[in-house]
Amino acid sequence: MAINSKTEPGVSWHEILTPEYLPKLATLAMALWLHAANSMLTATTMPSAVEEIGGLNLISWTFALYLAGSITAAASMSLLVARMGLRKTMIRAAMVFIAGCSIVALAPNMPVLLVGRVFQGLGGGGLIALVYVSQERFFPNRFIPKIIAFLSSVWMLSSFCGPAIGGVFATMGEWRMAYWAFAAQGLLLIPAVHFLLRYSEPEIKATGDRIPIVRLLLISTAILLVSMSGAYYHPVYSPILILLGCMSLGLFIIRDKLASSARMLPNEVTDLSHSIGNGILAILLLCISIMSFLVYGPLILIKLYAFTPFQAGLVVMLESLAWGTAAIFFSGVKTESEPKLIRIGSATVLLGLVAMAISLPSGLLWTLMASIIFMNGGFGMMWGFMIKRVIGAASVLDKDRTSALLPISQQTGFALGAALCGLIANSFGITEYPTAEELRPVAFWLFAGFVPVALLGNIMAWRFVSDRI
After folding, report:
1. Which of 118, 161, 365, 419 is most buried (most C-beta within 10 Å)?
2. CB atoms within 10 A of CB 399
3. Which of these, 387, 389, 393, lies nearest to 408 by C-alpha position?
4. What is the mean pLDDT of the chain?
C-alpha cells in the first residue's frame, strides 16, 4: 500500500503555534517531559538510594521493571482510550505515574522501590503512548513532522535536565526529593489535560472490549526475559532467555492477530506487503542497532580516552542533541522529499554505525564525535516522517492502535539492543574493571555486530517508501 506522495508545501511554525494548537502542544510536551526526564533521573539518584536503603544486587531491576511496565502500558493504551476516551485515560496514567513517584520517594527498602518503579513505568509508558495517539487526533497529519521535531527538542532537553536534576538532589543528600518533584509535576499535568484538552478531543463512541490480561502478561514477560539476559549474563542461559523473550513476543503478536475482539495491534503489523509492516520492522531493527554507545559508551570513553564521568556524560548527550537538531532542521520539507530523507536517514544510521566501530577503539576523538552526530542525526532526519507515514497508512479503525504501536516498537528495540550489547560484551569475558586492551575488541564488535541488523533495517525502510507495496 503506497502512501500518497503528492507535492505539498512545508508546514510553517506559524500554522502550529496558534491559540488552537499551542495548548495541545504544551500539554503533550509536559506529558513527554515527565516520562523522558524521569527515566534519565534514575541514573544519578540510584547510587544514593542504594547507599541509604541497600539493594545493590537489585539495582539493574530499577531499569528492567520500569521498561516492562512502560511497554505493557503502551500496548494497552489504544484499548483504554477506546473505553474511556483519551483525556480520562491520560489523567489516569498521570495518577499512576504520581503514585509510582510517591512510592519511590517513600521506599524504606529496595523491593518497595522496585514496586514504585513498576508504577512509574506503567504511568510513564502510558503517557508517552498517549502522546503518539494525541498527535494523530489533535493535529492534521501534515503537521506530524513538525510536532515530532518539537517533541524531539523536549526529549533532548530532558536528556540534559533529567540527570542534572537527579544529581543536584543527590548531591544535597535529598535523592527522595527528586521523585517528590516529579510527583508534583504530575499533579500539574492533570488540570492541564482536563482544561486544555477539554474541547479538543474528537467524539468517539466508547467500546466495551475487555483488557486482554494474557497478552499483556506475554509482552511484559518478553521484556523481563530479555532484560534478565543482560542483567545476569551467562554464556548459555542468557541467549536462551533472549530466545524465550522473542518467543513470548511472537506469541503475543500471534494471539493478538487471532483475537476476535480487544485487538492491541493493527492487522498489518506483520504484513511485509504493507507500509505499516515494513515501517514498524524498520523502526524496531534500527532502534536495536543504536543502543551500544548508550549502554557501554561511557565506560569505554573513561577507559580508552581517560574521560571523567562528567565528560563521558556530555558526549552521550550528543546523541540526543544530534537527533533533536536534525528533526527540527528537516521538519519543514515538502511531502515529495520525505521518501528521500527516510532512505538517506536510514543509510546514515548504518554508515554511522560502521564509523563508530572503526573510530571508538582507535582512540580518534574527532572521528568518534562525528560518528555519533552522523548516526543519531540520521535517525532524527527520518523519524518524524516515519511516524507520519506509518500513521497515515493506517485505517480509520486502527489509527489509535498504530499510534500506540510506535513507542512499543521503539522501546522494545531499545530493550533488545541493550540485552544484545550485554551478550556481545560478556562473550569477550569483560571484567568488572576492564583494561584498555580488553576493551578494544569489545568497542569494535559492540558496533560491528549490529551492522547486519542496521542493514536489514535499511532494507525495510527502503521498502517502506517504495511505490511497489
Report:
1. 419
2. 17
3. 387
4. 84
